[in-house]
Amino acid sequence: MNVIRTLTSNYVLNVGVTSWILAQLIKTILTLFSTKKLVLERLFGAGGMPSSHSATVVSAAIAIAKKISWDSPEFGLALIFAGVVMYDAMGVRRAAGEQAKVLNRLVFD
Question: Rounded CA gap, 60 and 15, in Å?
Answer without folding.
Answer: 6
